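Database export, one record per block. Field names are fixed; values are copied verbatim from the stored entry.
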Amino acid sequence: MVNQERMLNEFFELVRIPCHTGQEREIADLLKQKLRALGASSIKEDNAGDAIGGNAGNLVATFAPTMEGLPTIAFTAHMDSVEPCAGIEPVLNDGVITSAGDTILGGDDKSGVAAILEGLRLMKEQQLPHGKIVIIFCIAEEGGLRGSKHIDTSLTQGIDYGFVMDSSGAPGEIVNSAPGQNAIRATMKGRRSHAGVAPEDGINAIVMMGTALARMPYGRIDEETTANIGFIDGGIATNIVADECRLQAEARSRNADKLQAQTDAMVAALKSVESEFPGGHAEVEVVQVYRPYTIAEDHPSIRLAKRAAEKAGLTATVKGTGGGSDANNFNLHSFPAVVLATGMSKVHTVDEFLLEAHLYQTGEWVYRILEEVLHTAGH
């Protein structure tokens, strides 16, 4: 079914293009050309890039329906990659695709992009009737889902359900639940003094932070909730009592109440040291990065994806995840969306790899979803 040589070559073409977050102009222009060649009736680029200081916006392409009475569905993936993504040279050895050098591979998320493009080509070649199809390629998914957060939602309404091609795991895996995330930024304010001459005159902000961290819950909290301390710095020199120490942390949970409780506990730990260090102060800021979502397992989109997976010879499973994706934002402001696994493995590392078979299976899965929409409607 899938044209394997074509799909492999296109995947290699896509990952070779540098696409740092906020610098997606080159890949966006290429995808416009590809979508136009595939017959998109409209291709629009929004102004999300301006909102985040990037050089490109989200792409929203529409394929006009060729048959009435079918639901409108969306396929989405993101265009950006984490560092290091410049100079990627993909190689295929014994059915495994890796990077040849000290870079990521870029399967996150070019495996999703390639699958969508191949599914559309198969639809065109098979002359498969279809309803309205919306293709969304987002910017700035990495580091906070900022592209989909700032997407022009006038372009994403009227969609019955969507499939976000952006998850590790074997094709066939469907993610129906993902956590929300709160970012926690804190600065301990102490008082500077000479560490050798008058240490008693100082208030050590680093010690304040350490005291707070010692009583802060973090790591795996429960099956739905995690927390992490990601960054800490402070101080100037060993002979100066540090008057400032900064921290960046996060809390995640698939349960909104648990997310709030975990965030509150972390903030309370940070603020608790003020009474123990008179004159010291904890400045704490909480920013909601994205909200959690859960799609019921009997939702039409999940039933459709499961049937399509089985038609493609895949084992369909439904699960929750600990990571966010553009689906978090689409579920919030646009349409019900689930995430489909594309086979990418060890993402965000230079050890990233993708099984060649998984690449082709994901492309067929996209096509089978389009085919199953037609069959489900009784045509």
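Remark 1: The first strand starts at residue 42 and ends at 45.
Remark 2: The chain is about 30% helix and 25% strand.
End of record.
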